[in-house]
Design brief:
Layout: H1 4-32, H2 43-74, H3 79-104, H4 107-114, H5 116-127
């Protein structure tokens, strides 16, 4: 049977996934419909942005997993903090992907960075455990 912490962690991560999806779809729609014209629609701008933002997004994964694991292991009172942090952590991949879409107009790379939310959700679901009593 799934514990309350585990259920809340997965629900919060799912909420982060949905929020990331909505933000990614909004940015793609803004660029695709022509409402927003990208200021830097050049491949030479896109590549460094993908490398820098993607690098930050990937580097953040082990640090955040370590932090959430430590917080959860220290005290049972930290469970609400860990659950909220998980939602933000999963969602934050979209914060790296959306600027790429809005600045360059390359929706594919922006959506690719937003899709790292799925990796973040899987990592936190598999690796973050509740405090041992």
């Amino acid at each position: 049977m799934m514990s309350r912490f585990r259920r809340n962690l997965i629900m919060a991560g799912s909420g982060g996934l949905v929020a990331a999806l909505l933000l990614a779809l909004l940015s793609t729609w803004l660029v695709g419909s022509g409402i927003l014209r990208p200021p830097f629609p050049y491949g030479l701008v896109m590549l460094p942005l993908v490398l820098v933002l993607g690098g930050f997004s990937l580097a953040e994964i082990p640090m955040m997993i370590f932090t959430m694991r430590r917080l959860a292991a220290e005290r049972a009172e930290n469970e609400r903090l860990v659950v909220g942090l998980n939602a933000l952590y999963v969602f934050f991949a979209a914060v790296y992907g959306v600027p790429l879409t809005l600045l360059t107009g390359y929706a594919g790379w922006g959506l690719g960075l937003c899709a790292l939310s799925i990796l973040r959700f899987a990592a936190s679901s598999a690796l973050v455990r509740e405090a041992a009593l």
